[in-house]
Specification:
Layout: E1 17-21, E2 28-29, E3 32-33, H1 37-40, H2 43-51, E4 55-59, H3 76-85, E5 90-93, H4 99-106, E6 113-116, H5 123-126, H6 130-137, E7 142-145, E8 166-169, H7 171-184, E9 191-195, H8 204-213, E10 216-219, H9 223-230, H10 245-257, E11 261-263, E12 267-271, E13 279-282, E14 291-295, H11 297-308, E15 312-316, H12 329-344, E16 348-352, H13 354-360, E17 371-373, H14 377-383, H15 389-392
Parallel strand pairs: 1-4, 1-7, 4-6, 5-6, 7-8, 9-10, 9-15, 10-11, 15-16, 16-17
Antiparallel strand pairs: 2-3, 12-13, 12-14
Length: about 400
C-alpha cells in the first residue's frame, strides 16, 4: 500500500500538536490493567514524539460504553500507567470536545502529553459525526492513526477526522499493513496458514482468500470439528456448527482447485468436561460423551513438518481450549515451532488475534515472531480483501 501517507522521521513535529489515535482497549479489572501489550507496543513511538518536541494529544476508546459515561471504562488507569512510563508531563482531560478542550491542547508545551477520556463516551464518535470529527481535528496540527485494529470502523476519530487535518498512518499501522502484504502480495512461498477459532462461518471469507494465496491451510480449534465431522467421524459432544456442510464442501473443493493442501487434525486430546483432565484419543476412538479440546501429538508432528517446509507462516487462533492448561499443549507447540524457525531458518512468521496472544502470553515467545498483530478483526477483514475505511482516508490524493 505505497499510496498511503505514512508518518516518517522526515516530518517535523517540533512544537506541533500531534493527535495520535491509539487502541488502548486493554483488559482492566478493579482499576488494574491485566494485559499491557497494546500499551507497551506504542511506547517507543510516543517517546520519539516527545524527544522530537511534539505536543502529543492521545485519543483512544475503552470497551463499549455506547455514548455514555461509564466509570469502569474510564481511561484513568491508562493515564496512571503512562504517567509512570513516560518521563515527562502528562495531563488527563475529561471534559467535552469543545473550545475548552482545544485551549487545553494549545496550552501544551513541547514534549508534554495530553490524554483524553474514553472517546466512546461521546455518541458522536460511533456515529462518525462530522462536526465532532472537525472539533477533534482542531485539537492538533497533524493526525496519526496508530490504531490499525480499529481502522475497520467508520468512527469519527478514525475515519471522518482525516477530512479536516493533515493525516498519516503511524509506524505500527504501517507494520500491520506490510505484514498483510507479506501474505497476499509479496509472499515468500511455500506459504502455510494455521487458522483456529470456534466458528467456520465467521472466517469463511478469510479461509477462501487464504486458500487462493497459500500452499497449505491448517484448520485447528473448534472449527476443525466441522471438517472432522464432514468425514463422517463421530465428534461426540464437541462444538460444531449446524447446517454448514455446504460451506465445508465449498472449502474442500476450492482447496483442490487452488492446489492448496487442506490439513485437519488426525488425533486429539479430549475430556467429557472442559475443566477436566486430558485424555489422548485417535479420531476413531471418540465416544458420544467426548469433547475434542486440543490437537493430539500426531497432529502436532504433522503441523511441525508443514512449518518446516514453509518460508511464510500465518497463524490466527489457538489450537485448543487453552484456558484449561491441560488443553494448551497444541497451541504452545505451534508457537514454539514457529518461534524456533523464525530464529533459525529465516521463516517469515505473522501471528495474530487476541486469543492467540492470550494463549502464548508469559511463554517468553511473544517477541520471537516476524510480526505479532494485536489487530484481530481489522487484520482479518484485510485478508478478506476489504479496504478498511480508516486506511482509505490515509491515501494520497
Amino acid at each position: 500500500m505505497s499510496d498511503l501517507k505514512i508518518f516518517s522521521n522526515k516530518l517535523s513535529v517540533d512544537n506541533k500538536r500531534v493527535i495520535v489515535r491509539l487502541d488502548l482497549n486493554v483488559p482492566i479489572k478493579n482499576l488494574k490493567i491485566e494485559d499491557d501489550t497494546r500499551i507497551k507496543v506504542i511506547e517507543p513511538f510516543l517517546k520519539k514524539l516527545i524527544k522530537d518536541n511534539a505536543k502529543v494529544i492521545l485519543l483512544s476508546h475503552l470497551g463499549r460504553p455506547k455514548g455514555k459515561t461509564v466509570s469502569e471504562l474510564s481511561m484513568k488507569p491508562i493515564f496512571d500507567y503512562l504517567k509512570d512510563k513516560l518521563d515527562n508531563k502528562i495531563f488527563f482531560y475529561q471534559g467535552k470536545i469543545d473550545q475548552k478542550a482545544i485551549k487545553a491542547s494549545n496550552n501544551l508545551k513541547a514534549g508534554e502529553v495530553l490524554l483524553f477520556e474514553n472517546i466512546r463516551f461521546f455518541k458522536e464518535e460511533e456515529d462518525n459525526d462530522e462536526n465532532f470529527a472537525e472539533n477533534l481535528a482542531k485539537l492538533g496540527d497533524i493526525f496519526v492513526n496508530e490504531a490499525f485494529s480499529c481502522s475497520h470502523r467508520r468512527q469519527a476519530s478514525i475515519h471522518k477526522i482525516a477530512k479536516f487535518i493533515d493525516s498519516y498512518g503511524g509506524p505500527l499501522l504501517n507494520k500491520e499493513i506490510s505484514s498483510i502484504d507479506l501474505l497476499i502480495k509479496n509472499r515468500k512461498k511455500p506459504v502455510s496458514c494455521i487458522i483456529g477459532g470456534s466458528k467456520v462461518s465467521t472466517k469463511i471469507n478469510v479461509l477462501i482468500n487464504l486458500i487462493k494465496s497459500s500452499d497449505n491451510l491448517i484448520i485447528v480449534g473448534a472449527m476443525a470439528n466441522n471438517f472432522v465431522k464432514f468425514q463422517n467421524k463421530n465428534v461426540g459432544k464437541s462444538i460444531v456448527e449446524v447446517g454448514i456442510e455446504n460451506i465445508i464442501e465449498k472449502i474442500n473443493n476450492l482447496a483442490v482447485k487452488s492446489n492448496c493442501k487442506l490439513i485437519i487434525p488426525i488425533d486429539c486430546n479430549t475430556s467429557n468436561n472442559i475443566k477436566g483432565n486430558s485424555i489422548y484419543k485417535s479420531l476413531d476412538e471418540l465416544n458420544d460423551d467426548d469433547i475434542i479440546l486440543d490437537i493430539g501429538k500426531d497432529t502436532i508432528d504433522l503441523i511441525n513438518e508443514t512449518i518446516d517446509s514453509s518460508n511464510t507462516v500465518f497463524w490466527n487462533g489457538p489450537a485448543g481450549y487453552y484456558e484449561n492448561k491441560n488443553f494448551s499443549a497444541g497451541t504452545i507447540a505451534i508457537a514454539k515451532k514457529i518461534s524456533e524457525n523464525t530464529k533459525t531458518k529465516s521463516l517469515i512468521s505473522i501471528v495474530g488475534g487476541g486469543d492467540t496472544i492470550a494463549a502464548i502470553q508469559n511463554t517468553g515467545l511473544e517477541n520471537s515472531f516476524t510480526h505479532l498483530s494485536t489487530a484481530g478483526g481489522a487484520f482479518l477483514e484485510c485478508l478478506e480483501g476489504r479496504e478498511l475505511p480508516g486506511i482509505k482516508v490515509l491515501k494520497r490524493n
